[in-house]
Amino acid sequence: MTGDLTGDLTGDPTESPTPSPTESPAPSPSGESRPLPVTAVTCLEDRSQVERTTTVELGAGVRRLRFGPLTALAVDRTLRAESATPGVRVLDARLVRTWAPRAPLPPGPDDSDLRHRLHRLDAESRLADQARTRLEARLALLAQLSADLLREVGEGAGAGELERTRWSRELGRVDAERERYGEELRATHSRLRRLEQERSQALTALDEAEEDPAELTAHLELTVEAARSGPAELTVSHLVPCALWRPSYRATLDGGALRLESEAVVWQRTGEDWTNARLTFSTARSALATDPPAVAMDILMLRERTDEERRTVEVELREEAISALGPTTGLPGVDDGGEVRVLPAPAPATVPSDGRAHRVPLGSFTGPASSEYACAPELSPLVTQVVRFRNTAGHPLLAGPVELVRGSGFTGRGELRFTAAGADAELAFGSSDGYRVVRETEERQATGGLTGRQSTTRTVRLHLSRFSGPEERDERIVAVRERVPVSEVSAVEVRLRKEDCSPAPDSFDAEGIVRWDVPLGPGARRSLTLVYEVTASAKVAGL
Predict the structure, then answer these.
(1) pLDDT at 73 over 90
(2) How far apart are CA 503 and CA 484, in angstroms?
(3) Top mean-pLDDT range of 13-22, 221-230, 312-321
(4) What angle do CA 428, 392, 249 make, to 5 degrees?
(5) What's the sign of the alpha-carbon dihedral 132, 137, 139, 140?
(6) pLDDT surpasses 70 at 297
(7) The pairing of beta strand 476-483 with beta strand 358-375
(8) Contact 271, 353 (CB under 8 A)
(9) Are 506 and 432 in contact (CB under 8 A)?
């Protein structure tokens, strides 16, 4: 009967004969699909280029092959299929999407309590059914043992060998075991009936409350022409969204050496896992529009200035960030310095399709590093250890977050700016508790009686202290930076009064940054004084 059923299901005497190799038969919806795993991925800034490679056995002529299931998010217009085998040509490639019931997977955190309850009832039913099978097998063995004992009693009594005590003891033990396991079997049957009733109620409630969503799946259909029979290598590539990457680093400071480890953090929710795939990370931005922006009309009009506008010059103070150290909020884009960079992973990696961050190592290098203690009292009273090193990785370092590690362990997170190959970079390794900075400001304004010229003199006093333990005996240099306004109009002048500064600054650049290199020994204290003057003509307003 089994053979008849199998033959009816798998064979049909009225089926048409197999077409000749030169024909192109359409595959049936229930045709067998060949697996087509992901073998290589090029991760872009906001999407990924997926490549699949497989080897199939082809006969001479035209064949239509079906592969899958694949991710339904594949972009159709980017689909490309080719063969590297001589004599094999891909005639057509297309993606076919269908809705199918969702695979029977365990419920996740987003599923309802009904689904979780039904999953628990199914698990308990399986365990109870396994216990019932074991009990029935044990009772069958005990029944066989009882029959053997009764046969032994009959044979012994016929032969005149009477062992009443042993026979009674063995038969009593077997009957007790059969009674105990029989009771357990009846309890198991009762539990199974109760679980089946609860499961039926849960299924009814689930059918009334929720609708089992279908899952969109995709299959790839290829029409291939082969000149002769044999194995053929096929390569399929396409773009897929919901996959991106960002660079990340880990810096370990050990004395005068710094080890920088580069990683790529990958997120993907494409619907299929990337298992042992060759990963390449690119900064190309394929999503940017190639069309130039629309040109809008801009009308310029000339008019005479009013008397009030001729008499006054409107100025305002503007804050401009020159540089900053520390992590940024959110997920920034990839900074590649304006040129596309390609970073291959040294080894295959696996990235599950769970939407979580997965780290893929890219490389590392170790080099000498110099450190200094820096402070900008106007921004923060903390003294920070800044480490400078040279990029000896052989390729540019993209901008990204850095995990900072030194002798005491993990110290925090920083940010690495884009650094060209062979260029110097700097990282802030957190503040030091052994320093304290107090900042005081004093401002004095004056106006000329005859000219009406306004002048503002600002005095900034800084007090630095170092608290050190008895084991510290070395002297450290603290780089202190203060800011002086920079004027962009001729009506306003800013002058640094170096004769009143105590001590004189070590440097003063065009961006208005004043710097002192202050040596501090254990338990030392130093005071710094900065004086600058802002002078404006009488017609300046808004200062």
Answers:
(1) yes
(2) 16
(3) 221-230
(4) 45
(5) positive
(6) yes
(7) parallel
(8) yes
(9) no
Mean pLDDT of 199-225: 85
The pLDDT score that the predictor gives to residue 30 is 41
Q: With 90 as the cut, is the pLDDT of residue 226 above it? A: yes
Q: Which of 190, 185, 184, 177 is nearest to 141 (CA)?
A: 177
Q: What's residue 288's pLDDT? A: 58
Q: pTM of the predicted model, to two decimals?
A: 0.66
Q: Which candidate, 523, 542, 360, places its Cα nearest to that of 434? A: 523
Q: In whole angstroms, what is the distance from residue 94 CA to residue 220 CA?
A: 6
Task: Report how far residue 400's alpha carbon sits from residue 342's, in angstroms, rounded to the nearest whole number.
Answer: 16
Q: Of 399, 436, 395, 424, whose CA–CA distance to 414 is shortest?
A: 399
The answer to whether 427 and 507 have CB atoms below 8 angstroms apart is no
User: Given its phi and psi angles, is residue 205 left (phi above 0), alpha (psi -120 to 50 degrees) or beta?
Assistant: alpha
Where do runs of H (alpha helix) occur along 305-461?
307-311
d(CA 107, CA 160): 68
Write down how long the chain is: 543
Contact indicator for 396, 390 with CB cutoff of 8 Å = no
Residue 543 has pLDDT above 70, yes or no: no
Give pLDDT, residue 314: 66
206 bridge partner residues: none
Cα(543)–Cα(541) distance, rounded to whole angstroms? 6
List Cβ neighbours of 174 (8 Å cut-off, separation of 6 or more).
142, 145, 146, 149
Q: Which residues of 172-195 are buried (b: 16+ CB within 10 A; e: fewer)?
A: eebeebbeebeebbeebeebbeeb
Q: 239-253, 434-448, 457-471: which has the highest mean pLDDT?
A: 239-253
202 φ, ψ (degrees, to nearest 5):
-65, -40
Query: At residue 228, what is the residue type?
Result: R
Q: What are residue 520's DSSP bridge partners?
A: 476
Kind and range of the H or E element at 406? strand 400-406
Q: Structural domains in the chain? A: 41-94+224-239 (no CATH), 113-209 (1.10.287), 243-286+334-432 (no CATH), 435-541 (no CATH)
- Rounded distance between C-alpha atoms, residue 83 and residue 67, angstroms: 15
Query: How far is CA 94 from each of CA 64, 67, 71, 347, rounded to the nearest angstrom?
Result: 11, 11, 13, 31
Q: How far apart are CA 127 and CA 121, in angstroms?
A: 10
Give the separation between CA 286 and CA 240, rounded to whole angstroms: 12
